[in-house]
Amino acid sequence: MVDHRPPVLNVANVLTVLRIVVVPFFAWALLIDGGESITWRLVATGLFLLAAVTDQVDGHLARRMDLVTDLGKLLDPIADKLLVGAALVLLAVLGELPWWVPAVILARELGITVMRFFLLKYLVLPASRGGKIKTVLQIAALTLFLLPLNHLPGAVTVVAWVLMIAAVLVTVISGADYVRTAIRVAGDHRRGATGPQSLTRHAAATGTTPPDPATD
């Protein structure tokens, strides 16, 4: 039988690994001179944006070129959370974000990731519309906060805070939506309604995608 699975070493996975490799360099650039160097702040911002854009590119390539692998599905969310988590925590360390911001966002991300693993056998939970908006807001807000705001007009700081507050709100709301879906799936599972019809019903009601039985 011919194995049609894509090779593990493909361009999409290589880009994902590169995103992970960029994170320590981003952190180093951000922390130089206690975050006071304009030049290194701009370098850190550039590395952050490069990794964020690469996230979109590797996902597009994986789908378009049929390069989706189990390794890629494992590494992609890890790369995302490392990048965003590093930016949030380091900005808090520098005193430029209150600690409750990374605490709320990272608690949500970790909680949903754990929940996805538990639900994987019954229902695939792809990024919802709220999840995608959350990601865009987080990247936009963090990009502005990474800039040397002390040397920019005050309006930029105001916009950065508006985006960050919006990101936190959407992060919490989209997380609550995922939890609601998880509770429904768990309820059906306890009642024994875990077949394709049940999963399809959940998909229609929640905007999620049931797993392909052939790959379950």
TrEMBL record:
Keywords: Lipid biosynthesis, Lipid metabolism, Membrane, Phospholipid biosynthesis, Phospholipid metabolism, Transferase, Transmembrane, Transmembrane helix. Its main location: membrane. One of its GO terms (molecular function) is CDP-diacylglycerol-glycerol-3-phosphate 3-phosphatidyltransferase activity. The keyword Lipid metabolism applies. One of its GO terms (biological process) is glycerophospholipid biosynthetic process. It is a multi-pass membrane protein. It is found in: Membrane. The keyword DNA-binding does not apply. GO terms for cellular component: membrane. Residues 190-216 are annotated as: Disordered. Its EC number is 2.7.8.5. The chain crosses the membrane at residues 12-32, 38-57, 78-94, 158-179. Belongs to the CDP-alcohol phosphatidyltransferase class-I family. This is CDP-diacylglycerol--glycerol-3-phosphate 3-phosphatidyltransferase.
